[in-house]
Amino acid sequence: MHSETIKNYTINTEYELYEPQRKSIETILTCLDNGESGMIESPTGTGKTLSILEAVVAWVNKNPEKLEGGQIYVTTRTIKQASQLIAHLKKMKNAPMMNLLASRRHLCLNSEVSKSNDIDSACKKKNKDPNKDSRCKYYRTPNEKEQERDRNISLPGVFSIEDLVSAGGECNSCPFYYTRERQEKATIIFSPYNYIVSERISAALKIDLTGSVLIVDEAHNIDDVCRSTGSVDIKRADLASLISRLGTGSGMESPEVANSMMETGKFVKKIMNYLEETTDVLNKLDPGQCVINSDNQREISIPSKEMISTLEKMGISKLTIDDTFSSIELLFKDMIPDDYFFQWITQIKDVLKYIMNDGENKYGMVVSSDKISFLLLHAAAIFNPIYEKARSVILLSGTLEPFQELVTELTTKKNSFKHFLSADHIISQSQLYTAEVSQYNSVPILGTYQGSKHPDYISTLVSSIVDIAHSLEKVGGVLCFVPSYNMLTLLERKLEKHVKLFVENKSNSKFEYELEQYRRYCKMGKCIFLCVFRGKASEGINFRDHESRAVILVGIPYPNIRNHSVILKKQYNDRYLNSTGSKWYEQQAFRAVNQALGRCIRHKNDWGSIFMLDSRYRSAVRSLKISKWAIASVNMITDKTKLKDTFAPFVLNQKKTPNEEEFVKENTSYPVKRQYPSYSSGNFKRFFQS
Q1: pTM score of the predicted model
Q2: Least confident range of 449-453, 614-618, 669-673
Q3: Which residue, among 523, 484, 482, has the nearest Cα to 500 in the 3D structure?
Q4: How far is CA 527 from CA 123, 406, 418, 457, 640, in A?
Q5: How far apart are CA 610 and CA 650, in angstroms?
Q6: Closest by alpha carbon to 307, among 378, 361, 348, 269?
Q7: Domain 2-228+381-422 bears CATH identifier 3.50.50.60
Q8: What is the average pLDDT value for the chain, to the nearest integer?
Q9: What is the Cα–Cα distance from 514 to 20, expressed in whole angstroms?
Q10: What is the mean pLDDT of residues 285-299?
């Protein structure tokens, strides 16, 4: 056991702290002591998770009175990541009582309800039944819990999601409702951060951040999450479904409900008529007068100054909005018990009320033949109220810089965040090989629209990627990130002829399958997992040791410049924020790049390589847009000979380490017995359809 003092707090850990951990703990403790906010960037593999927990536990145990009834919310992107934090907390001594907020999808024990497409609605409907025998056997009213105490879940101060589900099963009691009851008693509450960001969810869970501490881990896309949370689509298909449900009335409704049905029908019809009129207009436009969206449909944006008048055409105004939506909400309460529709309607109401109350300049309105989209353009509309309530807000990630631009996106005050830390990596320079590949075999590599038209662009990419994979021999696999699924499909057909290839898929089940098989076969070398920037593989997946001996970055993943959400966001920043639209656009691209290259090194003794396949990376390195730990030394590769001269010796040196010698020896005779079809699009599709 190791013990040391940081800012008069005793920190006890199993091993000696890394320097980035010391600095992170110090920054967190400073924020907590002073009731201030901060941002911490610490590369993946530097022990950021332990830093959060050590600082929080030490501070709470020494200063329980400083929370004054508040709590500490430790949030991250997913329940899986929250579970990893809890696993660390379970190992710590004197950890305060914690709680985990998770959805019914993760906690439901009822086999019938858990299979429903809408678990929330199915659960609520089943438990409204006055007949106890018809209700879920795991659900009990407060009176029943008082009378049947032997069936109450009992857990220690710190528990995992597995502990919770197991305890619920043993005593036939609902884990979901148990966590709601435990919430007020807990000091540390773990949850996905969308529970905090969504006002609707936080209200339903009775989350009150007043005087509390909010810690957001993996916060690199918190601004995107806020804008997405504050945006809403009104789809033609959903309107049609709502009309269909209204038509299922019995004719025996109360006058109040019958009137609500009539008013709702009128409202929906006006929106449908507007969509019909817009479709006629769109069909008459020349291609240059509109944008073609990802569904290959024409769409236009409505200027801010015309947004209110456009809404009034649909019968929505400051005077009518409350009455209109009260009628709709009454229907969901008395006639249509559907959580999806109720949440959707509530979100529409909240967005439209915000727009009507002088918020139109913070929104973009985009219309196609199938939907009307209201796009929030400034994350501060969502995040600033959260910041104002909390005692401290601390954001952490491997990729947060530039800090001031993120502050501008999230809050309305210039000095809202007072403490910033950009920590170094814990590896030595000898453990990382970085190369920029601006051209290969005399062919320029430039992934712009014009550059990618070069007749040899794709074949040159394939040659360089294959040569890199082969250079690794049998020490591990390659993660290759590309800007889009279109590029992924194009390279897939070429690469599968030369290497063992696995491909990221949008489907969760297919992705997990490909990932599992990649992990199995990457031990043999000459194996590539082809991924997409901002995709599933770029965050939340731990590629350890031989699973990511090389990370290849193909092109730079700039957002689609023709996408209305990008156009409107750039215009908004130029007009209203200190950070220009062009800066925001650059940051979106390089945050995705830095997130992907973070898959390379996962711990102190790890080693790996990074290859940047695009001539634009040269200026990106010079202007420090790439994470500084990754570009301490950059090699210039132009052909296979240069690759052999510089990369081969690096790999050879790493192979001489005791761990690697043992790894290569163990996996030289790895049996290649595929229990699934060899990868091709056709075989893969048939396999999953069977």
Answers
A1: 0.90
A2: 669-673
A3: 523
A4: 45, 37, 46, 22, 18
A5: 12
A6: 361
A7: no
A8: 88
A9: 34
A10: 81
Residue position matching structure tokens 């005087």: 211
Query: Is the model's pLDDT at 674 over the cut of 50?
Result: no
How far is residue 307's CA from residue 363's CA, in Å, rounded to a whole number? Answer: 9
Structure tokens at 317: 């105004």
Q: Which two three-digit tokens encode residue 216?
A: 């957001």
Parallel/antiparallel/unpaired status of strands 188-192 and 72-76: parallel
663 vs 660: CA distance, rounded Å: 5
Residues facing 548 on adjacent strands: none
Distance CA 485, CA 489 (A): 6
H or E element at residue 349: helix 339-354
Dihedral sign from CA coordinates of 638, 640, 645, 650 = positive
pLDDT on residue 342: 77
Are 384 and 410 a contacting pair, CB within 8 Å? yes
Q: Which of 71-85, 98-112, 568-582, 664-678 has the lowest mean pLDDT?
A: 664-678
Paired tokens of 28: 């967190």
Partners of residue 234 on adjacent β-strands:
372
Half-sphere exposure of 583 (CA within 13 A, CB side): 15
Helix axis angle, 161-171 to 175-182, nearest 10°: 110
The least confident of 141-150, 332-341, 542-551, 591-600 is 332-341
Query: Strand, coil or helix: what is 180?
Result: helix
Which tokens hold the place of 599?
């898959």
Least Cα distance to 33 among 7, 14, 12, 10 occurs for: 7
Q: Taking a C-beta distance cutoff of 8 angstroms, is the pair 32, 19 a contact? A: no
Three-class DSSP category at 607: coil
Q: Is the pLDDT of residue 68 over 90?
A: no
In this prediction, residues 53-82 reach a mean pLDDT of 92
Strand order in the sheet with 298-302: 232-235, 371-376, 363-368, 298-302, 291-292
Q: Give the CATH fold of the 434-556+606-689 domain.
A: Rossmann fold (3.40.50)
pLDDT of residue 668: 45
Distance CA 167, CA 152 (A): 9
Nearest to 361 by CA among 348, 376, 351: 376
Query: Could you tell me what percent of the chain has a pLDDT over 90?
Result: 64
Q: Are 420 and 38 in contact (CB under 8 A)?
A: yes
Nearby residues of 283 by Cβ (< 8 Å), 6 or more positions away: 298
Segment 120-139 shows an average pLDDT of 85
Would you give the end-to-end CA distance of the chain in angstroms? Answer: 53
User: What per-residue confidence (pLDDT) applies to 540?
Assistant: 74
Q: For 27, how many CA atoms within 13 A lie in the half-sphere containing its CB?
A: 27
Q: Give the residue from 438, 53, 413 showing the smallest Cα distance to 447.
A: 438
As a whole number of angstroms, the longest Cα–Cα distance in the chain is 84
| Helix residue ranges, H only, 376-507 | 380-389, 403-410, 457-471, 485-495
Q: Regarding beta strands 2-6 and 9-13, do their DSSP bridges make them parallel or antiparallel, or are they unpaired?
A: antiparallel
Q: Which two tokens stand for residue 86?
A: 């809890």
